[in-house]
C-alpha cells in the first residue's frame, strides 16, 4: 500500500491506462453500441463541465467523475475495493455445504449453487467500491452479472470492464450496462431472465425494485437503502474523539453516505461544549478541488443534489433550528456546499427526519438513556448507529437496543469486508459483505438419498 507522501509523488503514474473511449455497453467481453444509438453525458462535479474526451483524462477516474477528494478515494475506495475483491476471491473454493443427520436410512447433504444471472444496480456515491461489493460475492458463488452503474458515474465501471477483458474473464460472465434508472435499471428489475437483483440506492427506488421483482419472476432481491443514523454521545465520552468522529461520520464524502451519522444526540451537560467544538472543527474543514491533496471535502455529485441539500438547509432555518455555520453553496463553480451545522434541532423537523445526503450535521440534546434510545430509534430507517461513552454498561445497553444493522462504539464508519452490512426497517433487505453477504448470492440445495443396505 502506498503511503500518502508516495501517492502524491507518484500521482501521474497511479492509473497509467487511458479509459476505454466508448461510453457504451460491455457485453460478452465486447464494447457494443446501444440499440437506440443514444449516448449520455457525464460530468465533473467539481466544475460542472462535461467530461467529453474521456480517453485523454490524466487523473484518477473515480475522483474525476464523482468529485471525491483524491487521497481519501485512494485510501478508502481503492483500497477497500481491492480488499473486498480479495476477501471474496478467497471464498470461491470454500463455500461448502454440510451433511445433516436426519431420521431414517438417509444420507442428507447440502450444496451451495449459483443463483444464475444477477442484476446489480449501484449508486454514484461509491461507484467503484459498490461495484466491488457486488461483483466479489456474485463471482465467488459462480453467478453471471449484469451491472448498471449510476448514470452520474459510469466511468470507473467501464474502466473495470476493460480490465475484465484484459484479465481473461470468459465472455458474458460480467456485463456492464451504463444507462438511466427508469430505463436500464427498471429493465433489470423486471426482466424474466434475471434471477436476482441487488440494489444500492434510495429507499424510494428500492421499493420500485422490490415491486418489479414481485410482478415479474419473484427474483431474489437484496436492497441497501437510505439511513438517518443516530450518533449518541454521553457526557463521560472522550470529547475530542467524539467530536472528531461525529464530524467525520457526517461530513465524509461530502455527507453522501448512506451511513451518515446525521442525528447527533448529545447528553445535556456537554451539549454546549460539543456544539462549540463541532463548529470550530467544521469551519476548519477544507473544501475544494478533489485533486488538491489537502482537500477534505469535494463537491456534491450534481446540481440536482446540491439544490436538494440547500433546500433542506432552508427548511431547517425556517423550521427554527439554529444555523451554527455554513448553510450556503461554496465557490463560483461546481456543486459544492459549505460544511453546515444546526443546533437546537427538534426531532420532528425535516432535517432530523429526511436523509439529506449532504454535509449537514444536526445536533440534538438528551437527558436520559431511556429517552435517547427511544428518540434514536424513532425513524423509518435502521442502517447504522453509534455510541460514545467510557461506560461499558451504557455502550452495551445502547448497542443492543438500537434498531440498526450496525452499531459502532467509540468509532464511526469502521467497516470491513469481513463484517455483514445492511439495514433494519426501511434501510434494506439482506446483507452485503462477510459470510452473510456471500450467501445472498447462492441457492442452498438439500440432497437426500435413501440408503439401501445390501449384503455384499
Ligand atoms: P439517488 O436518488 O441518490 O440518485 P437512486 O436510488 O435514484 O439514488 O439511484 C441509485 C441507482 O438506482 C442508480 O443506478 C439509478 O440509475 C438506479 N435507478 C433509479 N431509478 C430506477 C428505477 N426506477 N429502476 C431501477 N433502477 C433505478
TrEMBL record:
<dbReference type="InterPro" id="IPR016160">
    <property type="entry name" value="Ald_DH_CS_CYS"/>
</dbReference>
<dbReference type="InterPro" id="IPR016163">
    <property type="entry name" value="Ald_DH_C"/>
</dbReference>
<dbReference type="InterPro" id="IPR015590">
    <property type="entry name" value="Aldehyde_DH_dom"/>
</dbReference>
<dbReference type="Pfam" id="PF00171">
    <property type="entry name" value="Aldedh"/>
</dbReference>
<dbReference type="InterPro" id="IPR016162">
    <property type="entry name" value="Ald_DH_N"/>
</dbReference>
<comment type="similarity">
    <text>Belongs to the aldehyde dehydrogenase family.</text>
</comment>
<keyword id="KW-0520">NAD</keyword>
<protein>
    <recommendedName>
        <fullName>Aldehyde dehydrogenase domain-containing protein</fullName>
    </recommendedName>
</protein>
<dbReference type="InterPro" id="IPR016161">
    <property type="entry name" value="Ald_DH/histidinol_DH"/>
</dbReference>
<feature type="domain" description="Aldehyde dehydrogenase">
    <location>
        <begin position="50"/>
        <end position="447"/>
    </location>
</feature>
<keyword id="KW-0560">Oxidoreductase</keyword>
<dbReference type="InterPro" id="IPR029510">
    <property type="entry name" value="Ald_DH_CS_GLU"/>
</dbReference>
<feature type="active site">
    <location>
        <position position="224"/>
    </location>
</feature>
<dbReference type="GO" id="GO:0016620">
    <property type="term" value="F:oxidoreductase activity, acting on the aldehyde or oxo group of donors, NAD or NADP as acceptor"/>
</dbReference>
